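Input C-alpha cells:
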C-alpha cells in the first residue's frame, strides 16, 4: 500500500459519510465545561466516544483526573517500537456554553445541521471537528499500511474552555508517559479558508481590570459639574496613555525588542483575510511599519473589552461615582509576563493616575510560545503538506489567539506544530458555530499524508533518530 492509498482512504471516510456521522454524534453530547451541571457529559464524551475510537485503532487508554481540573483527561497510547519517533497529539472535547436561544432559527448547538457549504453545531470548529479529523486520518494510514510507522500518544482534555486548569500539573506529573519527539495537534483557524496553514505556538494573553472608585454615590451634574471629578473621563484619559489613537502600544515593556528575521520571512507571504463574513483589515490600525500579518502574529495588541460608568441602560443627569474597564494584552515571545502589570502600574503613576486601581481578572492567563519557523519539524510538515496539496502552506510563527501551547513546549519540551482545520469566520465561541466541509475533507487528506510521512525515514531524521 502507498501514501496515495492512505489519502484515498481518508477521502472515502469523508465522501461516504463516516466523518459526518462521527462528528454529529459527538456534537450531540453537550460538553459545556463552563456549565457545572455538565460534569457527567464531560466524562461521557471520553467514555462513549474517545475511548472506543482510539481503542479501535489499537491504542491503550487511561483516564487521568486532577483536583484542579474541571474535567477528566484521556491519554491514548500506541507504541509500535521505542526506536521510532513518538508523536504527541492533543485535542479538547469540551465546548463553551451552547447559548441555545441565540442561534438562528432552525439551528441548535447540539444537533449538527448542514446548510449550503456549512455544518452547524457547537464544537464543529472548536474542537470536536478538528480532533475527529486527526483520528480519522490515523485510521486511514493504519488501513493502508497496517501500522502507523511511528509511536503515537494522544491527550484529550475536557476543560480547555475554562483555561485548561490542571493541564500543567497533569503534564508535570506524567512526563515519562507523555514523553515524545514533537506535538502535532489541531485547533484554531487557518490564515484563510482556502489556504492550508501551520502555526507553531500562540500569543500570550492576560486580562485585567482598571477601576476608579471616587465616592459613595452619584451627584447631580448641574449642581456638581465642574466641581467634582468624573471617573468615566478620568479612566478614559488613563487608558488613552496606554495606547495611541491608532492602537500603538505606549508601554515599552509590553512589546518585544524586535521582530525576528525568521518570523518576518515566514509571514512575508501571509495575507490576513477573514473572508466575506469577517471584518475588513484596517491598515492604519496597530503598530506602524508592520504588515497586517506581522501585527497579529508577530506583535502585541492591547484591547479594551468592556467599559462601564454610570448606568448605560438608563442614563441619568448625575456624575457617576465609579468607572470600570476590562482590558487585555495579547503578547508574543520577547515580553516578560511577570513585568506586564508592574510596568502598567508604574506607567499609570508616571502619568498622574495613581488613583486608578489595577487588578488581574479571574480569567485564565496564557504564556506566549513560538517554535522557530525554520525548525526541522516545521520543514518536515511543510514539505508533507505541500506534497499533498501542491501548494505552500501558510506558516504562522504563532496563533494570534491563545491556547496552552507553552505547557507542551516548556513542561514536555516538545517541538509544537499545529495544523488547524477551521477558518477565521467560523463563529467559534459564538452562536451559529460551523465547520466548512471542504476544509474538513482537505484536512483529512493533509493529515493522512502527514501521518503517513511520519512513518518514513525523513521523520526519523527530523527527530534525530
Amino acid at each position: 500500500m502507498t501514501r496515495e492509498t492512505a489519502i484515498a482512504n481518508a477521502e472515502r471516510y469523508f465522501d461516504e459519510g463516516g466523518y459526518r456521522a462521527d462528528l454529529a454524534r459527538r456534537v450531540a453530547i453537550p460538553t459545556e465545561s463552563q456549565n457545572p451541571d455538565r460534569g457527567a457529559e464531560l466524562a461521557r464524551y471520553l467514555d462513549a466516544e474517545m475511548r472506543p475510537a482510539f481503542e479501535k485503532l489499537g491504542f491503550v487508554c487511561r483516564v487521568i483526573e486532577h483536583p484542579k481540573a474541571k474535567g477528566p483527561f484521556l491519554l491514548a497510547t500506541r507504541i509500535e517500537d521505542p526506536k521510532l519517533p513518538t508523536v504527541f497529539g492533543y485535542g479538547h472535547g469540551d465546548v463553551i456554553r451552547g447559548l441555545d436561544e441565540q442561534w438562528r432559527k432552525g439551528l441548535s448547538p447540539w444537533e449538527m445541521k448542514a446548510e449550503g457549504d456549512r455544518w452547524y453545531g457547537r464544537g464543529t470548529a472548536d474542537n470536536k471537528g478538528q480532533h475527529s479529523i486527526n483520528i480519522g486520518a490515523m485510521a486511514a494510514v493504519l488501513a493502508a499500511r497496517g501500522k502507523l510507522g511511528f509511536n503515537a500518544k494522544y491527550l484529550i482534555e475536557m476543560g480547555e474552555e475554562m483555561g485548561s486548569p490542571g493541564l500543567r500539573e497533569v503534564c508535570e506529573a506524567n512526563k515519562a508517559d507523555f514523553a515524545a519527539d514533537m506535538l502535532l495537534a489541531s485547533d484554531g483557524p487557518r490564515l484563510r479558508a482556502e489556504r492550508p496553514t501551520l502555526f507553531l505556538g500562540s500569543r500570550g494573553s492576560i486580562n485585567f481590570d482598571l477601576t476608579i472608585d471616587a465616592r459613595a454615590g452619584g451627584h447631580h451634574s448641574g449642581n456638581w459639574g465642574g466641581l467634582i471629578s468624573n471617573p468615566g473621563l478620568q479612566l478614559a484619559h488613563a487608558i488613552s496613555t496606554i495606547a495611541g489613537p491608532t492602537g500603538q502600544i505606549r508601554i515599552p515593556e509590553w512589546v518585544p525588542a524586535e521582530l525576528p528575521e525568521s518570523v518576518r520571512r515566514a509571514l512575508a507571504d501571509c495575507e490576513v483575510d477573514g473572508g466575506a463574513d469577517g471584518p475588513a483589515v484596517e491598515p492604519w490600525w496597530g503598530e506602524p511599519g508592520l504588515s497586517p500579518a506581522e501585527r497579529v502574529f508577530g506583535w502585541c495588541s492591547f484591547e479594551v473589552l468592556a467599559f462601564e460608568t454610570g448606568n448605560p441602560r438608563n442614563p441619568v443627569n448625575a456624575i457617576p461615582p465609579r468607572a470600570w474597564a476590562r482590558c487585555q494584552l495579547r503578547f508574543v515571545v520577547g515580553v516578560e509576563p511577570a513585568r506586564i502589570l508592574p510596568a502598567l502600574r508604574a506607567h499609570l503613576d508616571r502619568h498622574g493616575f495613581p488613583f486608578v486601581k489595577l487588578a488581574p481578572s479571574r480569567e485564565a492567563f496564557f504564556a506566549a510560545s513560538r517554535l522557530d519557523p525554520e525548525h526541522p519539524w516545521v520543514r518536515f510538515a511543510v514539505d508533507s503538506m505541500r506534497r499533498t496539496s501542491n501548494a505552500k502552506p501558510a506558516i504562522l510563527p504563532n496563533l494570534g489567539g491563545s491556547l496552552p501551547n507553552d505547557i507542551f513546549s516548556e513542561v514536555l519540551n516538545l517541538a509544537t506544530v499545529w495544523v488547524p482545520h477551521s477558518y477565521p469566520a467560523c463563529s467559534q465561541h459564538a452562536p451559529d458555530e460551523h465547520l466548512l466541509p471542504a476544509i474538513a475533507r482537505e484536512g483529512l487528506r493533509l493529515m493522512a499524508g502527514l501521518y503517513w510521512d511520519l512513518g518514513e525515514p525523513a521523520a526519523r531524521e527530523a527527530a534525530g533518530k
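Residues 39-56 form the longest helix (18 residues). The chain is about 35% helix and 20% strand.
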